[in-house]
């Protein structure tokens, strides 16, 4: 089935004993293959909602379901495994390990999950993101766009059903941003991977099937 669902979700924080409301009564359902963009001003709650959808943060109230099962019904081990196997993550900053080569960074999720490494499949993914000539390079030798390609390949290596993107091209120039965006959209369509992105980029957003705006703590489809 491969579906993530938020039901009457709200989120608040306490800062110096002051309660700050961020999200209120959010309802959204995302299935494998969907292209979902979250828009809104800085501080509106896009990244917060993304983190909750990815089970990296918990709502203050309401519930999150994965394949119709409450996230709270999973133990920590099962939840970690869901994130590792079914979810991929690409952020504005690549978060590569600087002392590991391109291929070593890409292989991290496979090694953590103790999966058998299919070298031909790994090489295929590296080739798809255009890094075959950089496979043994360390990150400091790569351009910003190339580093994001490594992050994308790392997100893909476990063949996830969902990839969460938090301003994935916010740190790139316009030309490189377009290349990375097109690569992500192409990969999503070919592998039927859902993309859920938080972004300010109007050019990127227009490619998505469902566009939601967070305003005044509420989520509305545009």
Which terms would index this structure?
alpha/beta, 222 residues, globular, 10 strands, Rossmann fold, 6-stranded mixed sheet, 4-stranded antiparallel sheet
What is the name of the CATH topology?
Rossmann fold
Largest sheet: 6 strands, mixed
Strand content: 25-35%
CATH class: Alpha Beta
Sequence stretches where pLDDT stays below 50 over 5 or more residues: none
Number of domains: 1
Task: Give the strand order, joined by hyphens, for the main sheet.
Answer: 6-7-8-3-9-10
CATH homologous superfamily placement: P-loop containing nucleotide triphosphate hydrolases
Q: Helix count?
A: 8
Helical content, roughly? Answer: 25-40%
SSE order, one letter for each helix or strand: EEEHEEHEHHHHEHEHEE
Radius of gyration: 17 Å
Give me the count of strands. Answer: 10
CATH architecture: 3-Layer(aba) Sandwich
Distance between the termini: 26 Å
Helix/strand-derived category reads alpha/beta
- Average predicted local confidence, pLDDT: 88
Shape descriptor reads globular
Textual characterization of the structure:
Helix 6 runs parallel beside helix 7. It contains eight helices and ten strands. It has helices spanning 46-53, 76-86, 102-106, 108-112, 119-128, 144-156, 174-191, 202-205, and strands at 3-15, 18-31, 35-39, 61-66, 69-70, 87-91, 162-166, 194-198, 210-215, 218-221. Strand 7 (162-166), helix 7 (174-191) and strand 8 (194-198) form a beta-alpha-beta unit. Helices cover 33% and strands 29% of the residues. The radius of gyration is 17 Å and the shape is globular. With 222 residues, the protein is of the alpha/beta class. It has a single domain, classed as P-loop containing nucleotide triphosphate hydrolases (Rossmann fold). The strands form two sheets. It has a six-stranded mixed β-sheet, sandwiched between helices. A four-stranded antiparallel β-sheet has the order 2-1-4-5, covered by helices on one side.
């Amino acid at each position: 089935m491969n579906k993530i669902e938020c039901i009457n979700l709200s989120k608040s924080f306490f800062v110096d004993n002051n309660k700050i409301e961020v999200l209120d009564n959010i309802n959204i359902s995302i299935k494998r293959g969907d292209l979902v963009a979250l828009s809104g001003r800085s501080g509106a709650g896009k990244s917060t909602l993304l983190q909750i959808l990815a089970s990296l943060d918990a709502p203050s109230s309401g519930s999150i379901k994965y394949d119709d099962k409450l996230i709270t019904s999973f133990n920590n081990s099962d939840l970690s495994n869901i994130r590792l196997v079914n979810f991929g993550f690409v952020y504005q900053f690549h978060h590569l390990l600087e002392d590991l080569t391109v291929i070593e960074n890409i292989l991290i999720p496979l090694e953590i999950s103790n999966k058998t490494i299919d070298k031909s499949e790994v090489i295929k993914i590296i080739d798809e993101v255009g890094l075959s000539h950089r496979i043994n390079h360390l990150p400091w030798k790569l351009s910003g766009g190339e580093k994001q390609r490594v992050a994308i390949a790392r997100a893909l290596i476990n063949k996830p059903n969902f990839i969460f993107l938090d301003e994935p091209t916010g740190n790139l120039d316009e030309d490189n941003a377009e290349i990375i965006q097109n690569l992500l959209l192409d990969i999503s369509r070919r592998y039927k991977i859902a993309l859920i992105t938080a972004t300010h980029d109007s050019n990127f957003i227009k490619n998505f099937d469902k566009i939601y705006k967070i305003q005044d703590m509420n989520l509305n489809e545009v």
